[in-house]
Amino acid sequence: MDESTPDSGLLQHLEAHLGAVRKVESARSDAGNRGYDLSFFHRDEPPVSTVVSNGLRFQPVTSMMPQELTCSLWDQQEHVAHYLVDSVASMVIRNEQGLEYGSYFKNNGPIVEGTGITAVLAHPSPFHGESFNLFPDHQSPALQIITLLPITDPEVGFVEAEGADGLFEVFRLNRTNILDVRRPSAV
Question: Domain coordinates of the chain in residue numbers?
Answer without folding.
Answer: 10-150
